[in-house]
Amino acid sequence: MAEIDAPVLRTPLPGGSEGARVTLRPFSTGESGVPRGFLHRIDEPLAYQRALWRGARKKFDHWTPCPIFLIEHPTAGRILVDTGLPAAMAHDPKAGLGALAARMYATRATEEQPLPARLRALGIPRGGIDVVVMTHLHFDHAGSLNEIEDCVVVVSRKEWRSAHAGKALARGYVRREFDLAHDFRLVDFDDPEVNSFASFGRSVDLFGDGSVILVSTPGHTSGHMSVIVRLKDRECLIAGDAIYTQHSLNTGDLPLVIADEHNYKRSVREIRAYKQMTPSALIIPGHDAEFFASLDEIY
What we know:
Helices cover 22% and strands 25% of the residues. It is α/β, with parallel strands linked by helices. The chain has a single domain, classed as Metallo-beta-lactamase, Chain A (4-Layer Sandwich), CATH 3.60.15.10. The radius of gyration is 18 Å and the shape is globular.
C-alpha cells in the first residue's frame, strides 16, 4: 500500500462531545527481550557493539512489556492506542513475525495476553473498536492491527512514510502488519493549522472535544506521536516509546537505538515540561516493567 493512498486527517473524527472524559485500561500483550544497555546506554568502550552482540546471542537482561491501551469515550466509542504483539506470538513467533524478524527480535507471550484474547475477555468483537491510534508502526506496536475490523487507523504522516521506506525490517517495521485494507488517516503535524498543547509544540485534537490529544514526539522514530487523554480526575500521557522507562524521563538517559537523537531529546524535554506543568498527570512510559506492574486495571 503506497503512502499516497492514505488520506490526511483534516478535521476531527466524529463523535466528540463537549467536556467528555474517558476511561482507560492498560494491557500488556506480551514481552520483548532486551540486552544490557538497550533501554539506557552504558558509558563504556564498544557499548553499542556489545549490546547488539548480546542481543544477537539472545542474552537478555530485561523482559519488557509490550502494552496497549483501551479507551472508552462516552460518544465516540472505543479507541485503542497501539495493538501490541501479533496474536500468533503466543504459540508460533515465526508465524507472528515471519522467519527473519523472529530471529532478529526476541518476544514471548501467553495465550491470554495478545489483543484478541484481551478483547474476548471484555466481550468486545473484532469490529467493536472504532478508532486505533498508532504511536508508531514498529512490530511490537502494530502486530495485531489485522485483528481489528471496520475501524479508522490514525498514524502520523511521517511515520507512515518512514515505515514504507527502505530497510524497514532493520528499523523495526514488519510491513505485513500494516499493509492492510484499513481506513488509514494520516496526521500531518507540519500543517500550518496544527496547534500546540501544554508543553508540546504540535498537537491534534482527535475528536475536537479535548478528550484525546495527539502530540508529536519524534525521535524514537521519525514520526512517533504520544497520546494525552482526559480521565475523570486527571490527564494521562501515553508516551509510547518517546520514553522507554520512568528512569529515562527523570534522568534524560538515552536508549541504545534512536532514529533522530536531536528530536528524541527535544521530545523528552517537552514531556518533562508537561510533567512540571501538569503534576497530577499520569505519564506512562513505553517499556517499563516495574512501572507497568504498578498501574491500576482501569482509570
